[in-house]
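Researcher: Let's try something more involved. This one mixes different molecule types, so please make sure each is placed in the same coordinate frame as the others.
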Amino acid sequence: MVGQPLVRLQDVAEHAGVSLATASRMLSDPEYGGRAGLRERVLASAAELGYRPNPHARALAMATSTNIGLVIHDVRDPYFATLSGGVITVAERHDLLVSMVCSYRDASRELEYTKRLADQRVRAIILAGSSVRDSAHAAAMHAELVSYQHSGGSVVSVTRGRTVGHVVDIDNSGGMRTLVHAMVELGHTSFGVIAGPLRLLAVRDRLQGIRQGLKDHGLTLGRDDIVYVDMSRDGGLAGAHLLMKRPKPPRCLLAISDVVAFGALSWLRAQGMTVPDDVSVTGFGGIPAAIDAVPSLTTVELPLEQVGENAMELALKPASPRHIVEVKGTLVRRDSVAPPR
Amino acid sequence: MVGQPLVRLQDVAEHAGVSLATASRMLSDPEYGGRAGLRERVLASAAELGYRPNPHARALAMATSTNIGLVIHDVRDPYFATLSGGVITVAERHDLLVSMVCSYRDASRELEYTKRLADQRVRAIILAGSSVRDSAHAAAMHAELVSYQHSGGSVVSVTRGRTVGHVVDIDNSGGMRTLVHAMVELGHTSFGVIAGPLRLLAVRDRLQGIRQGLKDHGLTLGRDDIVYVDMSRDGGLAGAHLLMKRPKPPRCLLAISDVVAFGALSWLRAQGMTVPDDVSVTGFGGIPAAIDAVPSLTTVELPLEQVGENAMELALKPASPRHIVEVKGTLVRRDSVAPPR
DNA sequence: CTTCCATGTGTAAGCGGTTACAATTTCCGC
DNA sequence: GCGGAAATTGTAACCGCTTACACATGGAAG
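Model: All components are placed in one shared frame. Result:
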């Protein structure tokens, strides 16, 4: 069982009565001159024969493909799904295909995939939600990215703290700080924080923002006021449990992300507690579902789609000079918070 | 600025003191024999030199790549995100990379991307949430898939109704029928349906399931009891508005999907109506967020992750014989429905 | 000690493009 | 009408890997 007759550039050239080289030029170099009417003739031949360039041959010869590599934590996480949407939108505009892989925050997987993408000569590698701080693989990862960039690839991280490639820097700490200010101004003084794993830079930054925000009002966080969980709905469930079962439960729960906040809301509901009457809850990220939660979630809304778009746009720029785009979130007050009773 | 010294298979061969061909065999054909200890020597050389095969060269020579093409409606839609998660999981297990594209239900885009993926000689093309019925492009799409499959590619549709490739068939009509039965048994007689565009086969099937379910109990749907909207949260909002503003609003709203149901819930909440006291609402699909809605959404839960896994597994099977995997949903009763008052 | 096979290895021809370089043509100004 | 620069085209050498085919080697059988 053989495929349909494959049309090679050679065939087009013959059909148009020119050499392989000329056909190639007419087809893929718009700058090139050429005798009057020749280009049209070649194009016509190509169309007539139904010529379809072989991307692998091209990639091999040119040492670059027309694909983009996107490494995210997990497609199923709305945060990354939304971000990916932005990447894909801009990629499409530039006629680029996106190869997406999920690292599930595993540094070794992340490294493996990055290598693989680099081997595929993707035009750019966009890394979102990576750990960065895993010392075991961090060095290898860095080396890989440097070498990749050296060989003409473009690197973009949606994470500050990488010393190679462009960066879309999300203002995690500033956003949290603003959020905490708002909570304090509402009258809250007793906080519980449901944090994520500390190896994530975003988590550290958000925590730092919380601490700073409290400090601005002369408040501090006790060691017990903060629990570390998995950054998932289940994590939020567990976190809420840990914090609320203490002798003196907090009146305001600050979740490290929207998804974690959902878990917390769910736990509270299951316990028959009312939000925000019994306890206020906040999220971070502003995923689309935050507005549908009941009560709707007060959060710091990041322009996730736009973050993806920015990342993809940076991916198209030359590696040097290095670009760093700052993205800020905006506080969105909704119904999950109220002054403490 | 040149990349780091690239190690070619040639270099490995020289380092190991064998010919290019032998090196190739040792490295990529585990079946091959070879003089005792030779394989180890070649492997050692490759490791020592840090050899990394060029996938494009390989793909060009073998006319097949190690990538999978996944065409979905939209990553940001949790239905497809979840499904994609399943695909990616299985793909990873087989060391395959997934190139994901979003068609946004645009048949022309879908065709364009399919061609592109076929040109890239991806091992398989998985199509989820495609329209199928768009006559303008349907023929071209079909031809493309046939030719792709003919040339060795594997086609999988998560949609019945395609006559080429494997199929993961979701029992849309059966699921809806079961759901409707449950609603009728609860005492409902007055229904409103928020449907999606009729060009989507899944929509037609679900509607058919609704009609059948009603018919089973001697009920029918009036022409006005059904509205057609975009399959999105906004669509659900609009749909709820249309149905509930009628002189005699329905007591039970059947949404064509969970996301649409979310929109409906949101509209109802904004109007100060209580679910399920004033009106019952159901969804379809069972996306993870359905459980977090308030009230939690009664829906037909599809094993979306598993659908993705099934699709990817089928993608690994030879094109013939054709496989058709049936997937059924399960009714999940939650708090968004109650007997009519 | 031949003869014949099975097995291992090397040579070289692709895979389908791009592009440096040489050869040819075209177009000037004198 | 001629010399020479500029523009166009063709030839052929890659890009890095797989694999058909030819050749060499080592035993087992006769």
